[in-house]
Write a structure and sequence with these properties.
Strand order of the largest sheet: 10-5-4-11
Shape: elongated
Distance between the termini: 27 Å
Largest sheet: 4 strands, parallel
Order of helices and strands: EHHEHEEHHHHHEHHEHHHEEHEHEHHE
Strand content: 5-15%
Helix content: 40-55%
Structural class: alpha/beta
Number of strands: 11
């Protein structure tokens, strides 16, 4: 790893390293690489050369120092256009959990370990220690009352590592449970209140009756709406004629221009999947315990509202894009308890949120999950 204030300075660094490595054959290749990466100041113009050994490195350095052309496999941030970095943090939603997530980093990064210990210890009401479940209990990790605290803990701990390295985002966007992590990082909730909200959300969802389903469809929101109108007009085949889309199925996630998740009664989900497959579109039932972001969650909302109303809220210190509206939260909706009730029930408008980030000039996206 080499760096400099300017491209000429970076090329000069390549020449200097080439000279040093050529004259000091006793230097261990790995030691030089390690020291350059960990002990030198990293300026804005950077070059990373991948080399199998000293001779390979010398050839690459000579080529770059002489011509300024990138060696094969090298990576450089030394773009003369020097675009300003506009960074958005993306916090992942439920379904991204996997056994052992974070375990390697927990054993190697003290910042991550301290943060994860601090967060997981706040979920003391669970029947088994959260950290133990994350690292060694695949069955419980997929149970919603564990899944949501685990993802929140992982994401916030990951952010603490990036924060310790001096990274500062311009925008935040979270998907479903990930939005609570985004709100905490933005300063809307302190850690205690964020953990209380996450714990209640997971516990109340898990306590709902089993059943319901979700499906991922190769479809836009307009496609789903058109399907509903067809059903009301009786223009769909008999197998779907009995389906009342508005009452039995909800939009759960608008994730991409042609990728939508629906949620609701299991028989209705099966019919929708069959309908889209008949149209030669991708459609897949998701393996979930409950129909998240659907009408089947409504029995938990009153108690969840009580929890949300008991929390303290503050104006965000960082700019957050709402996954409920897909827009910048200019009106401070995310500091209102009712926002979090509706956020649990209504569709996740992630696609619209990504469009908003793009319109704000974001050119770098860092997913924490």
């Amino acid at each position: 790893v080499l760096s400099g204030f300017t491209v000429p300075a970076l090329r000069a660094q390549a020449d200097k390293l080439h000279l040093h490595m050529g004259m000091n054959i006793e230097d261990r290749f790995l030691d030089v690489a390690y020291s350059l990466a960990t002990t030198r100041t990293h300026f804005r113009k950077r070059l990373v050369v991948f080399a199998k050994g000293k001779s390979d490195l010398l050839d690459s350095l000579a080529s770059y120092g002489r011509t300024g052309e990138l060696p094969a496999g090298a990576v450089s941030s030394a773009d003369e256009r020097d675009k300003e970095c506009r960074l958005a943090l993306l916090f992942t939603g439920q379904g991204s959990q996997l056994p052992g997530m974070g375990q390697g980093l927990y054993g190697s990064n003290p910042v991550f370990k301290q943060a994860l210990d601090d967060i997981t210890q706040r979920f003391g009401g669970l029947e088994k220690p959260l950290l133990q479940v994350m690292f060694a209990d695949a069955a419980l990790l997929n149970r919603t009352d564990f899944t949501q605290p685990a993802l929140f803990a992982l994401e916030v701990a990951l952010w603490r590592v990036w924060e310790s390295w001096g990274v500062q985002p311009d925008f935040l966007l979270g998907h479903s449970i990930g939005e609570i992590a985004a709100a905490h990082v933005a300063g809307i909730f302190d850690l205690d209140d964020a953990c209380r909200l996450v714990a209640a959300r997971g516990r109340l969802m898990q306590a709902l009756p089993a059943g319901g389903g979700m499906a991922s469809l190769e479809a836009s929101e307009a496609d789903i709406g058109a399907m509903g109108s067809y059903l009301r007009d009786g223009a769909v085949q008999a197998a779907l004629a009995a389906l009342d889309l508005s009452a039995r199925i909800s939009l759960a996630g608008l994730n991409a221009p042609q990728q939508t998740v629906v949620s609701g009664d299991i028989d209705s989900i099966d019919k929708v999947v069959a309908h889209f497959k008949q149209q030669q579109r991708k459609a897949k039932r998701l393996e979930v315990s409950h129909a998240f972001h659907s009408h089947l969650l409504e029995p938990m909302l009153a108690e969840f509202r009580q929890v949300a109303q008991s929390l303290s809220y503050a104006a965000p210190k960082l700019t957050v894009v709402s996954s409920l509206t897909g827009q910048l939260d200019k009106q401070g909706q995310m500091t209102q308890p009712e926002y979090w009730v509706q956020q649990a029930r209504q569709a996740v408008r992630f696609n619209a949120g990504m469009r908003t980030l793009y319109e704000q000039g974001v050119n770098t996206y860092l997913e924490l999950g």
